[in-house]
Design brief:
The protein has 3 helices and 5 strands. Strands 3-4-5 form a 3-stranded antiparallel sheet, with helices on one face. It has a two-stranded antiparallel sheet with strand order 1-2. It is 38% helix and 27% strand.
Length: 99
């Protein structure tokens, strides 16, 4: 991997962290391709695809968890793929914590 590819990946992921913590849905959607695929190995039933679905999911999350914050724990960039490990925190509407 070239240093330019690595910088590109880190810059995109760091920008995603920034817009998520700002609850900037429009800024967030600009970072996703139309054919984006979301896969969570620990939760396979939560898989989805497409930028439009990203917007639907995150608008609901920002509405229901007003103090949402993200923390980036680990990042791996291989070519055009990025693998990230995150912790998401906040308080759900019923008062229970999200982590």
């Amino acid at each position: 991997m070239s240093s330019r590819e690595q910088e590109r990946g880190i810059a995109v992921t760091e920008r995603l962290l920034e817009v998520m913590n700002a609850h900037d849905l429009e800024g967030q959607l600009q970072l996703f391709n139309e054919d984006y695929r979301s896969e969570q190995p620990a939760h396979p039933a939560r898989a989805f695809s497409g930028r439009e679905q990203v917007g639907k999911n995150w608008s609901k999350l920002y509405e229901s968890i007003s103090d949402f914050r993200a923390e980036l724990l680990r990042l791996a960039v291989v070519g055009e793929e990025e693998w990230a490990e995150w912790i998401w925190r906040g308080t759900k509407q019923d008062g229970t914590p999200l982590e």
